[in-house]
């Protein structure tokens, strides 16, 4: 039994957090040359004889040999030229191909290929296998799908794949920029843990210690591999892929993106939405997330330098906020009206528990430590590195907390008064 499958078994035991931790993942294979055994693995997991193989031209090329491995299956193909951002139109296309049929889905690729497959398969009750072609993000095992619909990006409840396959030879040979993007996506978990813990402290949101520990273990392990991320080394690629899967499993266990996504991800999502609105093709997800992570770690570390704060009720200009969202105003309103998440935070409690919040911030590696690790891993480090306008990045950072109904330290920026 693989390490990840053992984790899944261990989490079936009753948890002190009160949540029943379940996942649809049934089989995980990580090893060299598995691209030639995909058909066998699907057969062992009772996949339908008819398969819809979804990929883009690059991911299908990376998975050379996979088509031949599917001998005996009736394979239909849905191949994109390229897909950088998953949209609801992609989901509907796939749903139309699988609805009412005895068919299973094989997604060959990473995030933007996987996400519409995950949601379409969930909506139509079909089995799903993800064959990863690069260790570029942490959502392989997740049961949610970030999808853009009418210009607004939202994480929809979806399903985890029943089967996940990672061929270490293919993962090791993936382009360095994809590996670096995956590293940036993982370092974000430090901010996610901070925000989740602080929300637990101030709003009594359920935060599972076991899932936090699993996430922390995964990202700490990856930090130790920072200088090897870009190497074409199968052992390292396998370890990185396992770390990515652990955080995805954590999301699946909690049925929320909380273990892996904090303020930094929302900034990235808003950047994508604004760029799509302006006809700009977004960067790799992990590149934007990595820079947003460093921005948040620096901000949180600077806040934590203050031993005491004052706090007051939020007082923001909602007309200004909704004006920034423009065509996305209705979606932003739904995240904040008729009540918003900040209403659960008592300023007196925020002030009284500031020392505990400082301890939570200091419980993860510092901005400087993460910067150095990301530098070793070849990550983008600055707003200039990701080709963004500095003012746009600043605005997206400022207004991103109003895009999601989720408490983060950044969401409390207007409440916190430093001395």
Architecture overview:
This protein is an alpha/beta fold and 419 residues long. It has 2 domains: 3-174, 3-Layer(aba) Sandwich (Rossmann fold), CATH 3.40.50.1970; 178-207 and 258-418, Dehydroquinate synthase-like - alpha domain (Dehydroquinate synthase-like, alpha domain). It contains 18 helices and 10 strands. A 6-stranded parallel beta sheet has the order 1-8-5-4-2-3, sandwiched between helices. A two-stranded antiparallel ribbon has the order 6-7. The protein has a two-stranded antiparallel sheet with strand order 9-10. The mean pLDDT is 94.
Overall number of strands:
10
List the helices and strands in order: HEHEHHEHEHEEEEHHHHHHEHHHHHHE
How would you sum up the major sheet? 6 strands, parallel
Instruction: Specify the number of helices.
Output: 18
**CATH H-level homologous superfamily name of the largest domain:** Dehydroquinate synthase-like - alpha domain
**CATH top-level class of the largest domain:** Mainly Alpha
The backbone outline, from C-alpha atoms, is: globular
- CATH topological fold name of the largest domain: Dehydroquinate synthase-like, alpha domain
Could you say what the CATH architecture of the largest domain is? Answer: Up-down Bundle
The helix fraction, in percent, is 40-55%
N/C terminus separation: 54 Å
Low-confidence segments, ≥5 residues, pLDDT <50?
A: none
Strand order of the largest sheet: 1-8-5-4-2-3
Radius of gyration from CA coordinates:
21 Å
Mean pLDDT: 94
Helix and strand topology:
Elements: H1 3-10, E1 27-31, H2 38-44, E2 50-56, H3 57-62, H4 66-69, E3 74-80, H5 88-98, E4 104-108, H6 111-124, E5 128-132, E6 144-149, E7 152-157, E8 163-167, H7 168-172, H8 176-203, H9 209-224, H10 234-254, H11 263-277, H12 285-304, E9 309-311, H13 318-325, H14 329-336, H15 347-352, H16 354-362, H17 367-376, H18 390-399, E10 416-418
Parallel strand pairs: 1-8, 2-3, 2-4, 4-5, 5-8
Antiparallel strand pairs: 6-7, 9-10
Helix pairs in contact: 5-6, 8-9, 8-12, 9-10, 11-12, 11-18, 12-16, 12-17, 13-14
